[in-house]
């Protein structure tokens, strides 16, 4: 009986992953068993490794210390497999070595916040978790008699042969059923460096068109809403109806229905919106700070806060999140914010805390209204970063745990904040930008893929610009987050500039970019480029960076896409050489 239980425990993650991936792919293709069988084929190597280690540890002649080492190795591999499965289900991506390094220092805090554990609770849980593998590794089991039970080894050694049936190239979402080792090896090309010879010979020229206009000195609020996605809104997609307040605001102002995030995490959204730079990171290793948040984007002199401060603005950054996460507080100060506030603001002490030690969005908006009042005699930029709609989803008022409940709460608070701004007369000389930071970290919905296509669906977020001087309008041309920076910069300096890669959102110079770049969260070694009529994938691989999707007909166009990506990454690499990746207080 105990052997059956152990076998079920061992196979449970494999079967659960197979079931989950099969459902994931079924939503796209309507085909059953494709995902399940591919999980079995891809993960046969990992399970083969786990089983051979366990089998060898039970041989009658093996030394006890070696048996313990083999079992611990098998359990470590099993634990990595389970963690990878959990990340796929919860964040729609794999366990990546870079992420493990990047977020390791905050993982302890995050576990405490999610499960409400004290330091003692985490210690007790850790002891319990470690006790099981240590006991399993050291205890003596009945040894395998090689003369009686030879057949298991033949089955185990046969498992890797199943990998020959893996098909990881033909299907667009093959990343999800790759095993964690294969996935990490595949995305290593993202870190492939450019050779010195390539960099020396490289040149890229981008045509930029500029025109002057009257300077406007409006107060500016950028409201970056966590995980706000187009599919959540009836107005922006017709798929879900979770955002009636947002939809009402959109219908009364300037709504951009074909708008894209330039990256897949909050950090990417902050970089794009506040620096106007594409959140493409340079080739890097984990020893040269490539595993740190905001790597190569510290101390940007031409950031939006710095540009506006030259025009007499005060720049403030407000969030209820822990500013230590991702080193956000240090980064925000490095790009020019005069005032940076996070979860430790005393006003939040009376509020219940959720993930990232954050008070709910309602508390954040009250603080924002207070800061607006304090700055009423100044020109100001107020950047607001919400948290309540972050995974794991929970409605702070009802405690219901679901995405729809969390987004419904988030939408309710957006509506209340907008009405308060109206009542306080903000829009007499104020401009409000409401934008999603990235697509929610959930599997794409079938309706999204059918509506937007498999590449664009993962980047689609709402954008609303509420400006008291401008009538309601709907924009269907494509735009992106860096265009928010570009347009606001032009507004206050009186010079709007655009190119094939940068658009302008409003005014007489309003222009849609021909190409939009999106850093993907599923295949980290690939970048999506959205054209006006076609979409492309570019494989990041140092000197060998290349277009790998359906190839454009003209070689010059293929080269244009590759050269733009390489120019961005080489520029960040050069910047990183002169700037510390992380500046501590």
UniProtKB/TrEMBL annotation:
<feature type="transmembrane region" description="Helical">
    <location>
        <begin position="148"/>
        <end position="166"/>
    </location>
</feature>
<keyword id="KW-0812">Transmembrane</keyword>
<dbReference type="InterPro" id="IPR017850">
    <property type="entry name" value="Alkaline_phosphatase_core_sf"/>
</dbReference>
<keyword id="KW-1003">Cell membrane</keyword>
<dbReference type="Pfam" id="PF00884">
    <property type="entry name" value="Sulfatase"/>
</dbReference>
<dbReference type="InterPro" id="IPR000917">
    <property type="entry name" value="Sulfatase_N"/>
</dbReference>
<feature type="domain" description="Sulfatase N-terminal">
    <location>
        <begin position="218"/>
        <end position="491"/>
    </location>
</feature>
<keyword id="KW-0472">Membrane</keyword>
<feature type="transmembrane region" description="Helical">
    <location>
        <begin position="114"/>
        <end position="136"/>
    </location>
</feature>
<feature type="transmembrane region" description="Helical">
    <location>
        <begin position="68"/>
        <end position="88"/>
    </location>
</feature>
<protein>
    <submittedName>
        <fullName>LTA synthase family protein</fullName>
    </submittedName>
</protein>
<keyword id="KW-1133">Transmembrane helix</keyword>
<dbReference type="InterPro" id="IPR050448">
    <property type="entry name" value="OpgB/LTA_synthase_biosynth"/>
</dbReference>
């Amino acid at each position: 009986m105990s052997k059956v239980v152990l076998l079920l425990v061992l196979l449970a993650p494999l079967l659960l992953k197979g079931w989950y991936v099969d459902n994931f792919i079924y939503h796209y293709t309507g085909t059953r068993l494709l995902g399940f069988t591919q999980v079995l084929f891809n993960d046969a190597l990992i399970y083969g490794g786990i089983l051979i280690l366990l089998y060898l540890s039970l041989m009658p002649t093996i030394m006890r210390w070696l048996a313990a080492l083999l079992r611990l190795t098998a359990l470590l591999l099993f634990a990595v497999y389970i963690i990878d499965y959990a990340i796929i289900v919860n964040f729609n991506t794999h366990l990546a070595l870079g992420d493990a390094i990047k977020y390791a220092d905050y993982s302890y805090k995050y576990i405490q916040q999610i499960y409400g554990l004290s330091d003692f609770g985490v210690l007790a849980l850790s002891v319990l978790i470690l006790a099981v593998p240590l006991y399993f590794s050291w205890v003596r089991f009945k040894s395998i008699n090689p003369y009686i039970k030879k057949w298991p080894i033949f089955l185990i050694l046969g498992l890797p042969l199943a990998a020959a049936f893996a098909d990881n190239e033909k299907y667009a979402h093959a990343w999800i059923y790759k095993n964690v080792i294969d996935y990490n090896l595949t995305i290593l090309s993202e870190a492939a460096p450019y050779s010195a010879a390539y960099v020396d010979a490289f040149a890229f020229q981008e045509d930029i068109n500029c025109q002057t206009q009257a300077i406007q000195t409006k107060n500016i609020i950028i409201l970056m809403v966590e995980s706000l996605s187009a599919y959540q809104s009836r107005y922006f997609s017709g798929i879900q109806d979770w955002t009636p307040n947002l939809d009402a605001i959109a219908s009364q102002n300037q709504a951009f229905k074909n708008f894209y995030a330039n990256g897949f995490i909050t950090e990417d959204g902050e970089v794009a919106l506040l620096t106007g730079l594409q959140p493409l990171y340079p080739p890097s290793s984990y020893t040269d700070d490539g595993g740190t948040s905001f790597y190569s984007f510290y101390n940007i002199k031409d950031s939006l806060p710095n540009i506006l401060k030259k025009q007499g603005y005060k720049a403030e950054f407000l969030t209820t999140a822990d500013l230590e996460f991702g080193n956000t507080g240090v980064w925000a100060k490095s790009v020019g914010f005069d005032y940076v506030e996070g979860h430790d603001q005393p006003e939040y002490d009376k509020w219940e805390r959720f993930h990232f030690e954050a008070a709910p969005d309602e508390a954040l908006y009250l603080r924002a209204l207070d800061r607006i009042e304090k700055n009423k005699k100044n020109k100001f930029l107020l950047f607001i970063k919400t948290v309540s709609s972050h995974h794991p989803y929970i409605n702070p008022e009802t405690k219901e745990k679901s995405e729809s409940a969390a987004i419904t709460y988030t939408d309710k608070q957006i509506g209340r904040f907008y009405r308060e701004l109206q009542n306080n007369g903000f829009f007499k000389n104020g401009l409000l930008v409401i934008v999603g930071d990235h697509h929610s970290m959930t599997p794409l919905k079938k309706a999204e893929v059918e509506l937007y296509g498999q590449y664009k669906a993962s980047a689609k977020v709402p954008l609303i610009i509420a400006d008291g001087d401008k009538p309601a309008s709907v924009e269907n041309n494509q735009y992106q987050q860096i265009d928010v920076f570009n347009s606001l910069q032009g507004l206050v300096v009186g010079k709007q500039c655009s190119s094939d890669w940068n658009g302008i959102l409003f005014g007489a110079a309003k222009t849609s970019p021909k190409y939009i770049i999106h850093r993907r969260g599923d295949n980290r070694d690939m970048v999506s480029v959205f054209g006006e009529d076609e979409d492309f994938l570019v494989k990041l691989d140092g000197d060998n960076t290349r277009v790998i999707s359906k190839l454009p007909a003209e070689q010059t166009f293929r080269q244009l896409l590759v050269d733009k990506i390489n120019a961005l990454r080489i520029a960040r690499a050069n910047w990183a050489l002169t700037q510390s990746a992380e500046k501590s207080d």
